[in-house]
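Hi support team,

I submitted a single chain yesterday and got back a structure, but I'm not sure I'm reading the token output correctly. Could someone confirm the output below corresponds to the sequence I sent? I've pasted both exactly as they appear in my results page.

Thanks,
R.
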Amino acid sequence: MRHTKRFPSLSDSSMKTITLYTKPDCLLCHKAERELRELQREIPFELICKDITEDPELFERYRYDIPVVMLDGVELCRHRLDREKLYRMLKHPAQQGC
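Hi R., thanks for writing in. Yes, this is the structure output for that exact sequence:
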């Protein structure tokens, strides 16, 4: 059974996608997911939560680094969610150097 959860927001072709790499019993992961859901109420984006324990390649890559937050395939944070950076990237995508 796959544990990839999708939390779509408004349907918009220009909507950003945030992927959260997580695993069960990870308190930092639960906190990051909670913060992302709160932010999603303010700014529409699709949230995909991927359980790294279900994919050997992802587990090998991220096992000591979760949670990992990606915005449209680009890594933004590891270990802790940088909410301010993510907010800026979602509101002002042209400022990729933030």
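A quick pointer for reading it: Helices lie at 27-42, 56-62, 83-91. Let us know if anything else looks off.

Best,
Support desk
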